[in-house]
Write a structure and sequence with these properties.
By secondary structure, the protein is an all-alpha fold. The protein has three helices and no strands.
Length: 98
């Protein structure tokens, strides 16, 4: 499992810079939504409308993975559209240039 994560991060280096930025932005926004949900659920008992605050927190937690998936798809499509050269190596290779 750890080697899969390491290989995935290694492959991200070969993406187009715009695609990397889209994926990074989607990751940051999904983490921000999780933080927002944690804060809202933490302060929900002190709000005037407890149930609405809990709904907002649950909605933020529900939309965070969807935002991350949409960012990954948009980044991959952007990489396919903006890449002008062939990859230097095959996706399964461990080494650099031959």
């Amino acid at each position: 499992m750890l080697s899969f994560i390491k290989d995935t991060v290694w492959e991200m280096r070969h993406l187009h810079p715009f695609a990397r930025g889209v994926i990074r932005c989607a990751y940051q926004l999904s983490m921000l939504l999780c933080l927002f949900a944690a804060v809202i659920l933490w302060i929900a008992p002190q709000t005037p409308d407890y149930f609405r605050a809990v709904e907002y927190g649950n909605a933020a937690l529900a939309i965070a993975p969807v935002l991350m998936a949409a960012g990954m798809v948009a980044g991959m499509v952007g990489d396919l559209a903006l890449r002008r050269h062939t990859p230097e190596r095959k996706p399964g290779d461990k080494g650099g240039r031959k």
